[in-house]
Design goal:
globular
């Protein structure tokens, strides 16, 4: 029994560790169907060099399981956030804050664009807030960690929106020009 005690203690300690994935909060408007908190079942990162002077980081956080090779299963209640971080000439992928902007805006500075899928509908997020990267390891077995802080205050035409949460995404594809 004495030999078994350390093994049981180790199993108990391992079982008490928090290995949960942090949730992502989506709020796209005033209706109850416009809000959701989900725990990503897939958190993927792809780094693609588009040209010698431009590269992009693609992040996919989805409530449906998926791999880089296969799209997420079609589930009517699946939710997800897709982020595209564009890095123009001279910009390297690393920790930092990147504003969420409208497509085509600030083409000479790093910028983020994001789309949300909620209840089978896709929503382009309006400018506001930022993608914050706290840790980046752009190696084939690496990962990127950060915080989503996307927020649009709303206007006469569009309701206020918010997407927030911590994430950890593992690189599944890195395509570099040679």
């Amino acid at each position: 029994m004495r030999a078994l005690a350390p093994l049981l203690a180790l199993c108990w300690l391992a079982g008490c560790r928090d290995t949960s994935v942090p949730p992502i909060r989506i709020d796209l408007g005033p209706n109850p169907n416009d809000e959701l908190t989900f725990v990503p079942r897939a958190s993927l990162a792809e780094l693609i060099e588009i040209s010698p002077s431009e590269s992009a980081l693609f992040l996919t956080l989805s409530s449906a399981p998926r791999t880089c090779e296969a799209l997420a299963e079609t589930e009517p209640d699946a939710a997800g956030v897709a982020i595209r971080l564009l890095l123009p000439s001279g910009s390297k992928l690393g920790p930092g804050s990147f504003p969420l902007v409208a497509d085509g805006q600030s083409a000479d500075k790093p910028r983020a664009l994001s789309t949300v899928k909620l209840h089978g509908r896709r929503h382009e997020l309006r400018p506001g807030g930022e993608l914050s990267l706290s840790r980046v390891d752009p190696s084939p077995q690496g990962s990127v960690e950060g915080l989503l802080k996307f927020e649009f205050a709303g206007d006469v035409e569009q309701p206020a929106t918010r997407v927030s949460g911590h994430f950890l995404a593992h690189f599944c594809r890195i395509n570099r020009l040679r």
